[in-house]
Amino acid sequence: MRGRGWLLLVLLAVVAAGGWYWFGRGAGGAGGEAKGPPPPPEVTVAAVRREPAAVSITAVGTVRPVESVQILPQVEGPITKVAFTEGQAVKPGDLLFEIDPRPYEAALAQAEGTLAQDRANLESARRDLSRAQELAAKSFQSRQSLDQQRARTEALEATVRGDEARVAATRVDLERTRIVAPVGGRVSQAQLTLGNIARPGQATPLTTINQIDPIDVQFSIPQNRLPQVRAAMAKGPVPAIALEAEGGQRLAEGELSFIDNAVDPATGTVAMKARFKNPNDALWPGQFLTVALEVDRRPEAVVVDAVAVATGPDGRYVYLVRPDDTVEARPVTLAVLAEGRAVVDQGLQGGERVIVNGQLRVVPGGKVRVREQAPPPPAQGNGAPAQAASLPAGGNAR
After folding, report:
1. C-alpha to C-alpha distance for 28 and 8, rounded to whole angstroms
2. Is the pLDDT of residue 382 over 80?
3. CA–CA separation, 11 vs 228, rounded Å?
4. Considering Cα of 181, then 182, then 185, then 186, what sign does the dihedral take?
5. Percent with pLDDT over 70 in the chain
6. What are the residues facing 239 on neighbouring strands?
7. pLDDT digits (tens, 9 = 90+) for 190-217
8. Which residues span the domain enclosing 92?
């Protein structure tokens, strides 16, 4: 019994030693050493730049045609011709519809015949009046007969004037059988086609023409931004840029054309319009987009890539990388945030390094590995700085 107990103790000691060895290798690796701290996260940085930038006010706008004309018939008759393709561009004077002209041609011929007959009667009456005046002067005809002849002549003159008016009105009706475009633009669908009867006063227009070059964008801005706009107007035309509602792609350039004469008390906003040249139909009636009014231009603005700007509970901030590669969260106040870049009012001076990729992996005060320096975005157009637009909220973006 004593030998068996001794053997059991030896076995327990061997098992304990093996467990200690096994768990020691698992925790410390092959050499039994403990693992070190994880490496610093890798980030991409970009330099804060100083460059010319436009300060703008942005708002959501709706594209409106400068002119929208409903084409309605002014004479009655069957439509004998539709001279356009639905949706095509037309010029002023282009034929759109033709109504059967034959009844109006006949009416014009009849009116012209009546006019010719009454003119002949008037010429005869004038000759009779001339002879009557000569006879009355020699006392060969009574004064009463002369007055009667004069009255007949004047009545025929009035008849001829009425005939001329009827001829003119009938000629207008005949011209109205050819319905032409009063303005240039694009036509909508044809609501009546060949064979249908067009009638004056009908509720449904034959088609609609929207003038889209130039074209207007209607929008509203907060009333506290109105002084900036008025100050910009005092210096000259206020440039406007139309941007896609999503993505911020530039669509067209124009200028402010209208400011309403009152603030809407229900919304605290002022209605405005900007007019844009639209030769490529980039703007379409009814389209929603973003309008940026350039109210100022800074020759040396502090500019940073928009992807570097984050929003927290206390406002906007960026992650700076210090010279020792540690991270600092720096609050910033923005004047502009659009088209891929931000113009900074407060918080940065220019030359700092900000993180543009990898922000989710960093901790303020922690170390990072800088992978590369991101190049600045290329200038737009002929070397001109990219336009930018402020946030919709009043005042500076924070």
Report:
1. 30
2. no
3. 90
4. negative
5. 83
6. 255
7. 998 898 999 998 999 999 999 999 999 9
8. 75-100+177-203
